[in-house]
Design brief:
This protein has about 170 residues and is mainly α. It has helices at about 15-25, 30-45, 50-75, 95-105, 105-110, 125-135, 145-155, 165.
């Protein structure tokens, strides 16, 4: 049996309460949070209805963007949450122009690889994690692997554990 189509009819009670119920049904949590503060302000200041709609939609968009950013960060699996905010550019052995160029992330869009090596404690992990965080902020998807995790992943996905036989040349 087909589900009947629900229609929105005129208000039968408190319009704000009905609007909040509609935001639940339509899964608009950020608008729902803004409604209770915004509507009284909009009434008191006699906002244009289009302005109210614009502000509410902006709240929803900003809320979704923030939620997506949190989700991408969580899925990336970063070990420590390091960013360029706590990176000391002067203490690194990576030349400043190289750091600045890598931070632009153009190498990622060109699908180039990056390999950073050096002695323990020189900031390799911090710098690469900060690059990953910057990539996420730029809307990219990132996955963090330790060398051990990456090796295990490769071993798990080899069909018959004969890597040399599959490598051309």
């Amino acid at each position: 049996m087909a589900t009947p189509i629900r229609t929105v009819t005129g208000t039968h009670g408190d319009p704000l309460a009905e609007a909040i119920e509609l935001t639940k049904r339509l899964k608009l949590p950020h608008i729902r949070r803004a409604l209770t503060d915004l509507i009284p302000t909009a009434k008191a200041q006699r906002w244009d209805p289009a302005e109210v709609v614009r502000v509410l939609l902006s709240e929803e968009a900003a809320g979704r963007d923030a939620a997506n950013l949190r989700t991408r960060r969580k899925r990336a699996g970063f070990p420590a949450g390091k960013t360029f905010g706590d990176w000391d550019e002067t203490a690194s052995s990576i030349p400043r122009p190289t750091q600045d160029s890598l931070k632009m992330l153009e190498w990622v869009t060109r699908k180039e690889n990056l390999c950073i090596c050096g002695p323990s404690g020189t900031g390799k992990s911090h710098f690469t994690e900060a690059l990953g965080q910057a990539a996420i902020e730029a809307g990219m998807t990132v996955a963090w692997f330790t060398i051990e995790d990456l090796g295990a992943l490769v071993r798990r996905h080899r069909a018959d554990d004969s890597w040399p036989g599959r490598c051309p040349g």
